[in-house]
Amino acid sequence: MNFDLSEEQQMIVDSVAKFVANDSPVERFRKLRDSERGWDPEVWKRMGEFGWLGVAYPEEQGGFGGDFVDLALILEQLGKGLVPEPLLPSVVLAGGLISRLGTEAQVKAFLEPMVEGETSLALAYAERQSRYCLSDCLTTAEREDGSDLFTLNGEKTWVLNGAFADQIVVVARTEGQPQDERGLSLFIVDGNAARLTRTVVRGMDGHRTGLLNFDGVQVSADRLLGAQGEALSHLEWAMDRGAAAACAEGQGQIQELFDHSVAYLKERKQFGVPIGSFQALQHRAADMFAEVELCKSTMILAAILVDSEDPEERMAEISAAKLQLSDGGWFVQKNAIQLLGGIGVTDEQDEGLLFKRLRVLQGLFGDADHHVERFQTREGFDAHLRVP
Amino acid sequence: MDMTLSPQHLEFRDELVTWIAAAMPPEMKRRADAGAEFGPEDGMAWQKILYEKGWAAPAWPVECGGTGWDVTQRHIFTEELMRANAPQLSPFGLGMVGPLLVQYGSEEQKQRFLPKILSGDEIWCQGYSEPNAGSDLASLQLRAEKDGDDYILNGQKTWTTYAQYADWIFILCRTGSEGKKQEGISFLLVDIRNTPGITVKPFLTTGGTYAFSETWFENARVPQSNRVGPEDGGWSMAKALLGHERTLIGGVAESLRWLQFAKRIARDTPVGTGRLLDDSGFRRRIARAEMRLRAITMAQNRTLAAAQLGRAPGAESSILKLVGTELLQQATELCMDAMGHDALGWLDSPPEALPEHERSVASQWNYLRAATIYGGSNEIQRNVISKDILGLPTR
Question: Which one, out of A96, B112, B249, B367, has a CA that is 20 to 30 A from the CA of A131?
Fold first, then answer.
């Protein structure tokens, strides 16, 4: 076991931290949240030049051949500054699936331009009724005999970066009934396709999502991603990466909220003394510290195991990490606001922005209850009765 | 970053599992497999077996009888013993005063005491707390007056765990009254069986066992050569020893054992036409605890990995006692809840009323309330974190 950063990883962390401090403190996000798309394509291009967008893809796909841990370290640092550029939807979700399943032509056409920061991507999986059930998909893709075109009909909700992405990976049913595990397929749909209506939905965290309506959108067969009807296990894989990424980015916010709280406890005076000298608040801070350290531990664990060859172990550890992000993270964030007192609920303080983004990450890719349920319904839960 | 155990460590684990199963005497093995709770006598018997193998104190230096294993091997050893439900050894000699003597003891003290701690020929207990010195340990009052080559001890210790089984006790006592209260304390080794003037009175705990004692010292005479470290320098001895103690009581392996118990009980408990382990509400409660254990285990692994590289434990290690003991208690609560009416039973309930593996659950559920109190209560741990790690101001 070794959890030290390699020299390369330390360099990545340092350069991203420097970027956040100099070029993208929370102030930049504050301005961008009122802009049309909520993030800056020029900065996205620079991230492409820095190599951050391709860090975890193989070299033959224009990437740098790193692993998910490298990507998680970047997300953690960006999370501290609430950097709004769409790495999660582009690099982790849609990009991850294209890298995993795409043909050489698809990688060239859709992944490589994103790696360079020229385009951005999205993954459309959620629907009004689906909650966290990936197979609960009413959107259909039909293909008439002999035709080269699929026709997509349906609606996708809360698509991260969905309103502005150049290309959108869309989950649609090519056969079977809603909730069937077989029959789901992935299509790479042009963001400006005819008969696709995109409504911009501004989120609590200041990010934009898309409400997408597919009203007979035509997609050529060469935009089918992966084997037809076999998308579910790949989607589960992508959601686990999304969960690990949420843990990483969320760690940045948890650490910031905690550090701000401790600093405030030392500096704020009431009754003539720093409020951090009161034991009630000291013990609260100690309990928050415990949760921060557990979040850090599970975030590392999730980032390492997201590529595990044992899906059973991968899912168990990712679920444990996502539960810690939700429960432990929530303990830290709600107490951070409480310790700050009244100023904690003012919009001009950064803590409230960190607080909101963190809550969004907690609800993505399965909330606490979802992951507890997944943990206890997996086979290994009963198999672990080894002793005595 | 690398999460995996090396092939050598995996092989080591396999060898251990085989050895442990073969080394237990048949009756001990039967009880271990049945999930029975072992008492101090069982621990002593098991220590003899480990001692014969050279494994009684893996963490000690090789020249003192240790194994030379690395931290990961030692961790695997602890974990596999717990998985096998082997009897637990008394920690006071092997895990506490032994390592302290290795670090600070004189050559004579090492030669006199270490071999018998290792072999289990001499059992130790700890004399720290007093009726008026609990969390505020430094306010302890037990007096040690110099008289020739000896000290004369007068006063009382309490919470001396299993003193009735002990041959020796290590104590903190007051040798000076000048300066800060931490400054006049010395660390002594006392023959608790043969020193006239010492009275040990075990008392019943809520767990139904005599786990703790009150210990009185009335003009008890102890040679000054039994002092470890300088006179009035006992507080730093105590702090060094507490460090050893806290790494012992994070309880990850023990929590794992209790969660497995909870599942086993739930599996064997009929509810309607099925079993309690089919109940999704109960499964979710166990699942949450298991997921928490995975998080704590990872925090512990980070500590271990740092130690393996020869570094001091990082900030994450300070939380292990705090969160580990809370989870341990929660795991015993799950066992109690799983038992339903069986949780009405007690240590002496007949086997036809209460299965053997459930018999001591209620006792342990009671006793382990102490886990968040001993070794520095969890409130003291929070003080330590807020002052030493977070640097919050004192008043």
Answer: A96
A65: left (phi over 0), alpha (psi -120 to 50) or beta: left
How does pLDDT run along chain A (388 residues), one tens digit per residue? 788 899 999 999 999 999 999 999 999 999 999 999 999 999 999 999 999 999 999 999 999 999 999 999 999 999 999 999 999 999 999 999 999 999 999 999 999 999 999 999 999 999 999 999 999 999 999 998 889 999 999 999 999 999 999 999 999 999 999 899 999 999 999 999 999 999 999 999 999 999 999 999 999 999 999 999 999 999 999 999 999 999 999 999 999 999 999 999 999 999 999 999 999 999 999 999 999 999 999 999 999 999 887 888 899 999 999 999 999 999 999 999 999 999 999 999 999 999 999 999 999 999 999 999 999 999 889 875 544 3
Whole-model pTM above 0.90? yes
- The amino acid that residue A112 corresponds to is E
Query: What is d(CA A329, CA A288) in angstroms, rounded to the nearest whole number?
Result: 9
For residue A121, the surrounding DSSP H or E stretch is: strand A121-124
How many separate domains does chain B show? 3
B349: its two tokens? 């309930």
Among A97, A2, A85, which Cα is nearest to A48's?
Answer: A85
Range of the structural domain that residue A356 is part of: 233-382
> Can you give the residue range of the structural domain that contains B17?
7-89
Residue B239 lies in a domain: no
Give Cα A283 to chain centroid, integer Å.
Answer: 32
> Would you say residue A1 lies in a domain?
no
Q: What is the pLDDT of residue A386?
A: 46
Tell me, yes or no, whether A264 lies in a domain. Answer: yes
Tell which phi-psi region holds residue A367, choosing left (phi > 0), alpha (psi between -120 and 50) or beta: beta
Is B50 buried (19+), middle (13-18) or exposed (0-12) by CB count in 10 A?
buried
- In this prediction, residues B142-171 reach a mean pLDDT of 96
> Cα(A186)–Cα(B158) distance, rounded to whole angstroms?
69
Does the distance separating the beta carbons of B315 and A375 come in below 8 Å?
A: no
Let me know whether A256 and A338 are in one domain.
Answer: yes
Tell me the three-class secondary structure of A315-336, residue by residue.
HHHHHHHHHHHHHHHHHHHHHH
CA angle B226, B230, B232 (to 5 degrees): 105
Closest chain B residue by Cα to residue A301: B298
Name the residue of chain B whose CA is nearest to A9's CA. Answer: B1
Q: How many angstroms separate the CA of residue A313 from the nearest CA in chain B?
A: 11
Same domain, A174 and A226: yes
**Residues B308, B355 contacting (CB under 8 angstroms):** no
Parallel/antiparallel/unpaired status of strands B185-191 and B270-271 = unpaired
Q: Which residues pair with A215 in a beta bridge?
A: A153
Measured CA to CA, the distance from residue B258 to residue B263 in angstroms comes to 9
Interface of B with A in 245-284 (CB under 8 A): 257, 260, 263-264, 267, 277, 280, 283-284
> What CATH number has the domain bearing residue B266?
1.20.140.10
Domain total for chain A?
3
A29: distance to nearest CA of chain B, Å? Answer: 29
The answer as to whether B112 is a domain residue is no
pLDDT tens digits for range A230-241: 999 999 999 999
